[in-house]
Amino acid sequence: MATEQNTAPPRKSGQAPARWLTRIHTSLYLWTGGAIGGRMGTSPVLLLTTIGRKSGMLRTTPLIYLADGARFALVASNGGAEQHPLWWRNLLADPRAGVQVGRQNINMMARQATPEEHAELWPRLVAVYGPYADYQKRTTREIPVVILERAEIMLRDTGITTA
Fold it and tell me: Nearest 5°: phi and psi at 52?
């Protein structure tokens, strides 16, 4: 009898529980319009939907954010790991994104902050979520600040279209 072998690389400890918690967080946020899951402590949380760079599937991640006028600023910290978070790698491949803040859905385009924007926004982002400063100390990479700006695009469950 032939058996299938798992050729995938071993998962890092804690990946499965983190993925499970993210799914629960996202579901509660969607179900309640952010009444549950819309804050992490005192920090505001949005849902970011990206297009998987390998799968082409829509991927939704809850993230702490800073509202800056009509745009949002995010930190691609990955907890201070040496590699960028998957959501940022997805946006580097395709900058179109959907954002849900509370019950409001917004079509956005992502880009990395300029050095000047990074210098201006970083202290404000650390004020929103203090551990970002520790995450920067853990890694040799400069943690990107990601700017989300409104766009006339749509991400749909059945595919991606532009308006």
Answer: -55, 125
CA–CA separation, 19 vs 22, rounded Å? Answer: 5
Classify the C-alpha dihedral 55-58-64-65 as positive or negative.
positive
CB neighbours of 18 closer than 8 A, spacing ≥ 6?
none
Overall residue count recorded for the chain in this entry: 163
Does the predicted TM-score (pTM) go above 0.85? no
The answer to whether 99 and 155 have CB atoms below 8 angstroms apart is no
Strands in 33-158 per DSSP E = 39-40, 43-51, 58-64, 66-68, 71-75, 96-101, 104-112, 145-150, 153-156
For the stretch 18-55, pLDDT in tens is: 788 889 999 999 999 999 999 999 999 999 999 999 99
Closest CA to 77 of 87, 91, 66: 87
Given a cut of 60, whether residue 8 has pLDDT beyond it is no
